[in-house]
Amino acid sequence: MDNQTPLFEGPFDSDEAADAIAELEENDDIAAAMTEVLDEFVRDNDDYAEEGQVDAALAVACLVAARISGIAPDEVAHHWLDRNPFTVLDDLRRLAAIAFDLATRFDDNYLSEVRAADWPVFLEHLEPYRKALHGEPQEPAAPFVADFSHSGRRWLQVFWSITDQSLPHNSAYADVAERLVRAVNLAPDWLAWWRPAGLQELLVFGELVPGACSERISRGRTTAEAWIGLGHSPEVSEAAAAQQVADDVRAALIAAGRYLGLAPVPPLPTLD
Fold this sequence. Notes:
Blueprint: H1 15-24, H2 30-44, H3 53-69, H4 75-83, H5 90-103, H6 110-114, H7 119-133, E1 156-162, E2 165-166, H8 172-186, H9 188-194, E3 201-207, E4 214-219, E5 223-229, H10 238-260
Parallel strand pairs: 1-3, 3-5
Antiparallel strand pairs: 1-2, 4-5
């Protein structure tokens, strides 16, 4: 019998919510795109908050709330807002508040039906967003303090991918990459480089696909994320893998450090 507690999902964790906020990033006018999503939801869901639409509208309303207050219990919101500046005018705030109330009502709501077991917990989680949209005072979150006191705790995590899938573990590139990232995590000079960020972790998502290089970096409340398109495939010989991986890891860390205002990166550890 499995007695594990089910993983709690916040307002940004469903596929519909994730797709909706990803689509917002494709617009030049974020506030206008938000208004369109929320207005359609309010007009079409007065009688019943439909599947898909309610997830999307709630996620958008929560982003508006987080922009107003700067208080969000979800790390996703902090990263998204860091990447996407926009201004909340009165009309957008009013519309977001109406949409939030529709999306969180208990009756005639698909979301409350599928989340019946954890609905009170879900509403409690959403309370900072509700207060922000309705102009109610709330205590700011306590300042985050990173903790590196536990031996073996990683401050750097790197996730490698190729087209539409993770990098196979049995490649020369993957083997070297795993060992190098482990060595960086254990190196005192690299932890000293990372500490001034005031964050717990740096999450690097390295895409190994031929084409143009790219980078998208954001700072959350507790983590930083660096999405790096490295512009080449992972197909390298064992002899060349060490240098290629070192170049890629260094490029990702330089980009993250530059965004976060950190000092120049120290030398990478030498692998045996």
